[in-house]
Amino acid sequence: MKKLDKRVDWGTDNVVAKGGDYFRLQDIPLYDRVGGDQAMEKAVDVFYRRVLQDDLVGKFFEDVDMEAQRLKQKSFLAMAFGGPYQYTGKDMREVHRHLVEKMGLTDEHFDRVIAHFRDSVLELHVPEPEVQSLCEILESFRDDVLNR
Amino acid sequence: MPPSIRLRFGSRTYACQPGETVLEALLRQGVRVPHDCRRQTCLTCLMRSLDGAPPPESQAPLKETLRVRNYFLACGCRPRADMTLALPTELPRAEIGARVAELNRLSGRILEIVLDLDHPLDYRGGQSVILLNPDGLGNSFAIATPTSRRHDGRIELHVERVDGNCLSEWLHDHLRLGDRLRVYGPTGQMFHVPLAPRQGVVLAAWSGALGGILAILQDIFEQEHTGPVLLLHGARDSSDLYLVDDIREIEDYYPNFRYVGCAGGDSAKPADVSAGVSTALRARLPRLEGWRVYLSGPAEFVEQLRRQAYLGGASIREIFFHAATD
Question: For the domain B201-324, what is the CATH code?
Answer without folding.
Answer: 3.40.50.80
